[in-house]
Design a protein that fits this description.
It is a single chain. This protein is about 0% helix and about 45% strand. Strand 2 and strand 3 form a beta hairpin. The mean pLDDT is about 85.
Length: about 100
């Protein structure tokens, strides 16, 4: 059986840590990769990105009433990103690279 060739976007994986706030307001996180949304879970997961580092990663929280806590970041050379939502369902969240870990 022939194996498929990599698509060009699956050559590099990054770790994304989604820190659950104390009050989630029944919200679930959604991760966006270059604008395409993917449902996610709280905690640590890995996501496939392009090698060039220009991939835009975003996270927002969504419950049945509203969307909040949005944050976006270009991956660059980061190997680990961490997301923190605000205390209240207003305003933006924070998506930051974790220092000390390179991807290469």
């Amino acid at each position: 059986m022939d194996t498929t060739l990599p698509s060009g976007t699956t050559k590099r994986r990054i770790e994304l840590r989604l820190a659950r706030p104390l009050l989630t307001w029944f919200a679930r996180p959604t991760v966006t990769i270059d604008g395409v949304g993917h449902p996610a879970q709280w905690g640590t997961g890995t996501w496939a990105v392009a090698d060039d580092g220009r991939t835009a990663i975003g996270v927002y929280l969504f419950n049945r009433a509203w969307r909040f806590g949005a944050a976006t970041l270009s991956v660059g050379d980061a190997a680990v990103l961490e997301y923190h939502a605000g205390l209240f369902p207003l305003g933006a969240g924070r998506l930051t690279p974790v220092p000390g870990r390179d991807s290469r």
